[in-house]
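DUF4157 domain-containing protein
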Amino acid sequence: MPVQRAVNAVAEAASDVLQSMGTAGRNGCHAAGAALGRIPVAGPAPAFVLRWWGSVVSAACDLVATTVKAALGLVAGAGCGAVRLAGGVVTRDARLRAAGLADLVASVAGGVLLVLGKALALLQAILFLQLRERALTDVERDLLRKVYGDSIAPYTVRVVPGRAGLFGLSDRAFVLGDTIYLKAVDSARRPEVFVHECAHVWQYRHLGARYAVEALWAQWALPDAYDWAAELTRGRTRWTEFNREAQAELLADLWHLAGDAFATADAGFTWDGIDRTALARECVAHVRSARARGLSARRRPVAGGRVAGDTPPG
């Protein structure tokens, strides 16, 4: 719905400003800590404290940004859900009623889930449990650009490798808003996993907090949630109709099989002996058409692939 898209755009712009502020604060603390670390008499303590404080500032801004986006997303989702629900009641259309109810539930539950997750991330930052959080590497930035074009601004995307407090209870990589918890996955060795997780970042940026509960619902309700070919057998012929995990997995498979040919307009895609080129092109075109906007999108790359003011991984 146009109104829902407009409200989501406002929510993304507002949260992007807050996230960019947090990233800038974090980078500033890291830069100051690195500068102090080069002074022999200072020792490692000031650098450690500033790195910790930077992670706290970033997590706090991220929590506020997520809360703002979730609140506005709730307004948009609940409003559109109510309209669809009412329309389904009037027309006695069960599918429309179900879609309206799904909008309502996903908007509320997704927002609550992400806000609680970001609150936990802030607590873990305070308790020194997320000090390994880092910016994207140059290779990761390049891969993000090859697959997603300009639809995701990399400035506010963060990666947490290894364990991270309670988020490390599971071995599976996952995404919380703009933060990718890779766990033991090495993005250089398994780039398809990185591509999959970045799809959830894309969903958060362009669909809002509802993506989180929709992805979890797919995992719980569908034994083959990650199998995008199974979505085709269910009559869902377009990428936009797939469940959130199947959407991400198709992009991962495209990269895994096509690699650098991903960016070639005439590249083909065959899966299980069936030509799926039309589906692949529709998927890629839709993803890349959703261009990133806002403050983070204006951060221009400098030497080394990073942007001015960004700190290197580590």
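thats it. The two ends are 42 Å apart (CA to CA). Confidence is low (pLDDT under 50) at residues 301-309. bye
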